[in-house]
Design brief:
This protein has a 4-stranded antiparallel beta sheet. The protein is about 35% helix and about 10% strand. It has one domain. It has 8 helices and 4 strands. The protein is globular, with a radius of gyration of 16 Å. Helix 3 packs antiparallel against helix 6. It is α+β, with helices and mostly antiparallel strands.
């Protein structure tokens, strides 16, 4: 399956998308400098914990849509509905509704839907929809809280050191990855498969793993 083999390809090429790349992309879209000083982190607020001693702590991981701000929850639900539809073209209205097109790859792409179909193991793009659905149904974390790059990130283990995951969390990771993929990522030192980012105002910023 094309997408399930993507991890090895990303490791081989070195083209990976990390939260730091995501933050840079948001700054660039806003016309800000890469060297801008980050804003100070605020105290924890109601909802998902911002920081804890253990990055894999269950207290840090959001599980319920009720923990999301209303605009984020609305976008999350729209993506869930599009993925469940079985029609990848259902993503197009969501893509078009964003202030800037969401990131799907490192380089420029002319047609996001065609690009996603090209990644899928089936011509209709349903495998990529399944990946999107699986990622969005896993817990999330709030990252870069209080800054211009604040984001709700799925899956949560995209922002957790893999060696800190609990056995239960590793099993959850295996719903979207193989054991071989997991070992490859441990060797690399980071989760590099697909992740979704939505900012607090509900803007969908990315669904990306690599080019």
């Amino acid at each position: 399956m094309k997408l399930r083999n993507l991890v090895a390809a990303l490791l081989w090429t070195g083209l990976v998308w990390t939260p730091s790349f995501a933050a840079a992309a948001i700054r660039t879209a806003a016309g800000e400098s890469e060297t801008s000083e980050p804003a100070a982190q605020p105290d924890p607020v109601e909802g998902v914990e911002i920081e804890t001693e253990d990055p894999a702590s269950a207290d840090r991981i959001g599980r319920s849509p009720d923990q999301l701000p209303a605009p984020v929850r609305k976008t999350w639900q729209a993506l869930i509905d599009a993925a469940r539809s079985g029609d990848i073209n259902a993503l197009k209205p969501l893509i078009d509704a964003q202030p800037q097109p969401p990131t799907f790859a490192f380089g420029d792409i002319e047609d996001p839907i065609a690009h996603l179909k090209s990644l899928s193991g089936d011509p209709e793009g349903r495998e990529v929809l399944a990946i999107l659905l699986e990622v969005l149904e896993i817990g999330f974390v709030r990252v870069d809280a209080g800054t211009d790059e604040e984001m709700y990130l799925w899956p949560y283990f995209a922002d957790v050191p893999l060696e800190r995951l609990t056995p239960e969390q590793v099993v959850e990771m295996f719903t979207i990855l193989t054991a071989g993929d997991y070992q490859d990522m441990l060797s690399y030192g980071a989760y590099i498969f697909f992740r979704v980012g939505i900012s607090p105002d509900g803007t969908w910023h990315f669904f990306v793993a690599g080019d």
